[in-house]
Amino acid sequence: MSSQGAITIPLAAVHEAIAASRPHDDCLVFRDKRLSWADVTDRTRRLANHLIDAGLGCHTERVDLEGHESGQDHLAIYLHNGNEYLEAMLGAFKARVVPFNVNYRYVADELLYLLNDADARAIIVHSAFAPTLSEVLPQLPCLTTILQVDDDSGNELLPGAVWYADALAAASPDKPAVDWNADDLYMLYTGGTTGMPKGVMWRNGDAMVECFGGSQTATTVEEFVADAATGLQALLAPPFMHGAGHWMSFRAWLGGGTVYVQSHPERLVPNDIWSLVERETLNFLLIVGDAFARPLLDELDRARDDGRPHDLGSLNVILSGGAALSEPLKRHFLEHLPTVLIVDGLGSSEAGGQVSHVSTAGSASTGTFEISEGNVVLSADLDRVLQPGDDELGWLAKTGRLALGYLGDADKTARTYPTIDGVRYAVPGDRARLLDGGLLELHGRDSATINSGGEKIFAEEVEGALRTHPAVYDCVVAGRPSERWGAEVVAIVQLRDGADTTDDELRAAAESRIARYKLPKVFVRVDHIERSPSGKADYRWARETAAAYRSDHRVARQSQG
């Protein structure tokens, strides 16, 4: 099964061809490692040959499978950011093995579920995570290949594992003796914030364009190489275990650029980020919404106030993907970096990249996007395509090259990829309204909707309104049961250090942006907002915090930090 207009060129072939055109240029920089394109080619070939020698690869071709089925072996990537993460993905493609992401915050039971659901045959794991993996290894008899990446943890080699560096050193540097195929899978596991994680499967040829941002017009390897001229010098701050981080890494590579990895990938260290941008004169930075922006802006303020501002004149673009970047923080960035373009990128595991919005000095805004080719808004009942000006809250959807489906789940695949009037759509779950002029008004994920008094209230919309108050450092909104309303809106708020404000003042700030019925009924003040390493809101934690709150609780008791 393949999607309409499917790309027939495999990603592995494109990367090798770009590498051949610039073998000595920097491809990947991490700490003291400056790997050239030739180095990355050598290392990923060696990894591929190690996997092939272990008996891993493709066993059933795509043409003989349904959209929710896989005929390949699967490689789990259980790593912090670093050169090994991207090498693992590319090396897997070169072995015709399917790479997939592992959330390194999972506890043992969650890890066991994920590896079993993904039918993992192989894993590459940082030593820091070896103790958690060791807890579940006896229950994973199919996990036959373990490569362990040494780190500062000092943890010993797992039973049956091989050190990653030793495996590469012993493997052949020759081009793997397999025929790369654009039908081979790329798999991205969803975060599981609204249910159990699911593996979204793409043809790697289609993912190369729709997820990784490769050329939309190239039809041959030579044309992909010719289009690889953007020269992004890119720092991707989010964890690669979430799509935004590794998507934009491959985008940099497909443009012939260089990927840089921060020195402290296990957490966000703002001075580490800005110092790397400054030292390497980088032109592109990826962040995830306000959770990344706030500490980065705090560092810019601190450096300016100390009289030693960072020299960031090389930076052209800050892209926020995966979570909203609020208007006040965009304006704050532009005060420090008036020539930078701030881009909101909207996409999903199921649909790839979708729409974007650009803010510049003097025109910063949030919440609306220009509808782009292939993207539509479907009616609430999923029975027709809405037209500009239709006053209906519908579903943002995408046509064209789409993911094949969810691994092992035919029913969920059918629900997320409906066919309407003969056209297949991806409907990831974002609610939107199509305005006159083709502008898209995004309301947020339906899974984060609060049904209160018969009205649908979108958590992200309320969060954006509250963030306009200068005392608010971070916030997340959730619903909790209410006898009167069915559910009531609860705002969990982290104030700036030293700031103080009343509930009424917070409501007044929000009321200038949203209707009164959307205003929070309750405010919970906490010391720290719980978020994923990618910066996305943890709505499960938020609902639990909202449900547990009582007005006589002290603020400190609400902190889960």
- Please tell me the CATH architecture of the largest domain by its name: 3-Layer(aba) Sandwich
Structural classification: alpha/beta
What average pLDDT do the residues reach?
Answer: 91
Q: pLDDT under 50 segments (min length 5)?
A: 551-561
CA-atom Rg in angstroms: 23 Å
- Net shape: globular
Oligomer: single chain
* Arrangement of strands in the largest sheet: 2-1-11-10-12-13-14-15
N- to C-terminal distance: 46 Å
Query: What is the beta-strand fraction?
Result: 15-25%
Q: What's the count of strands?
A: 28
How many domains make up the coordinates? 4
* CATH topology grouping of the largest domain: Rossmann fold
Please write the CATH class name of the largest domain.
Alpha Beta
- Roughly what percent helix? 25-40%
